[in-house]
Amino acid sequence: MTQSFAAEKTTSIPVHVIGVDEVVSWIETQSDFVQGWVKANSFRASIGEMIMIPNADGTPMCALIGYGNTRTRARGRFHVAAGAAKLPAGVFHIESGLSPDTFEEEVLGWVLAGYRFDRYKDQPEMKALLKAPETVDVARIEAIAVGEMLTRDLINTPASDMGPDELEAAFVTLAQLHGADTKVIRGEDLLTQNFPMIHAVGRASDRAPRLLDMRWGSCGPTLTLVGKGVCFDTGGLNLKPGSSMGLMKKDMGGAAHVLGLAHMIMALGLKIQLRVLVPAVENSVSGNAFRPQDVLTSRKGLTVEINNTDAEGRLVLADALALADEEKPDVLISMATLTGAARVAVGPDLAPYFTDDPKISAALEGGAVAAADPIWRMPFWTPYEGMIEPEIADLDNAPSGGFAGCITAALFLKRFAEDSPSYTHFDVYGWQPSPAPARPKGGVGQGTRAILAALPEMLDL
Predict the structure, then answer these.
(1) pLDDT, tens digit, for every residue of 142-171?
(2) Global pTM?
(3) Paired sense of beta strands 90-96 and 13-18, if any
(4) Of 367, 327, 319, 354, which Cα lies nearest the Cα of 428?
(5) Does the domain at residues 141-458 carry the CATH identifier 3.40.630.10?
(6) 8 A C-beta contact, residue 217 and residue 303
(7) What residue segments make up the domains of the chain, in order of their start?
């Protein structure tokens, strides 16, 4: 469910955002009544604090939202949303307390705080609407919010209702919304059109594997996004234990990310040529499942020894990346919920990314700060290339030993994107383990806002 802005001309209640260090000076400028009210409510301006101040007739005069201090703000994001979620029903506007460099972040956080996943159960709506501010690009914030909420909805939907068929339907619906063209290659056609590893991973399921291909835009630099669409991952014949299978509905999180980002790009009308590729499969167990020690031949012609059928995401991405690489787009980006090693390295809150392009890295680092979307650069560490090269095939999909798992996975993918001028890979988690301001527990986008903010520099727009 999407919450947007209230209309600009709507009558609204002012909100003052106050940091711990500003409480005393703010109170001193107020009437005796307001001073007494704030003191009686023991308002200390901690993050998440909120009080309503009434007029003499009991109607709302204003609201105060705590903003903590520099140290506490550094430990999180979207701090105004923490207080806004506690406001009563009404329309509000931010009157004071935010600097220009944080205003857009906090406005976006307020809108994102209105997200609810209510497909299976009614959820109470956020009561407080924010009036569209005049000082921010409202259309841009709405495009970002809708894209982020699309990502969340797709990840949150269980595999019973988000298999390859349903992911294809969401893909086509998004394309139709923006006038994009789509092509879908399903089932045995994957073999005749040379996508053997997508077929191998998905053939054991009764839901046919497929490759989804979207194109939008007719002029400008070229950007191709590739997202992992493993709609459920049992681990295949290397079956996961139940404890590891519990969140595998989110294994199509890479696809959810690139679709959310694609919406942002198309809704904002960026002058680029966009292509989105999603290999959509279910990694199941059946008599025709691919096996450990099988050797698969990829679209690119590289052979891959299968040493773990639970390392399937890189296989489907490899065929899709090989297709993308044939066009040599100006920028090629893959996004995937790929390795547990990435979570061990940086935890659930950071989105690690890999690139050898200093221009891309600089743009992403700046975009991440501007968009309050934290990322962390990891290396395509060439000395580890030998770890993905087995004796009987060109590549190993699951090197033994356990060291540098997210790096070896990224190096594997890079082998299929060697002709493009610039390749970047994101190994995202896509899940909020516990509630946080503007981010309820469940599916969440990571890195997409940073990429969007970086695109003008990345593509010389």
Answers:
(1) 999 999 999 999 999 999 999 999 999 999
(2) 0.97
(3) parallel
(4) 354
(5) yes
(6) no
(7) 13-136, 141-458
Quote the CA–CA distance of 360 and 423 in Å, as a whole number.
Answer: 9
Cβ-Cβ contacts under 8 Å for 305 (sequence gap 6 or more):
293, 294, 295, 390, 392, 393, 395, 396, 397
Residue range 307-323: average pLDDT?
A: 98
Two tokens, residue 458: 């990345």
Picking from 362, 379, 380, 378, the residue whose alpha carbon sits closest to that of residue 454 is: 362
* Residue 414 annotated as catalytic: no
- Quick one: which of 278, 265, 263, 248 has its CA closest to 431? 248
Residues in CB range of 146: below 8 A, 6 or more apart: 2, 263, 264, 267
State the catalytic residue, choosing from 86, 240, 343, 377. 240
Determine which one of 152, 314, 415, 449 is catalytic.
Answer: 314
Residue listed under structure tokens 């993918």: 413
Question: Quick check: 39 pLDDT over 90?
Answer: yes
Count of residues making up the chain:
461
Q: Which amino acid is at 325?
A: D
Pairing of strands 431-432, 128-130: unpaired
CATH superfamily, domain at 13-136:
Leucine Aminopeptidase, subunit E, domain 1 (3.40.220.10)
**Separation CA 276–CA 298 (nearest Å):** 20
Closest CA to 279 of 190, 149, 405: 190
What are 287's two structure tokens?
């008599």
Q: Would residue 73 show up in a list of annotated catalytic residues for this protein?
A: no
Q: Which ranges of 94-163 does DSSP label H, i.e. alpha helix?
A: 100-112, 138-156
Mean pLDDT for all residues in the chain? 96
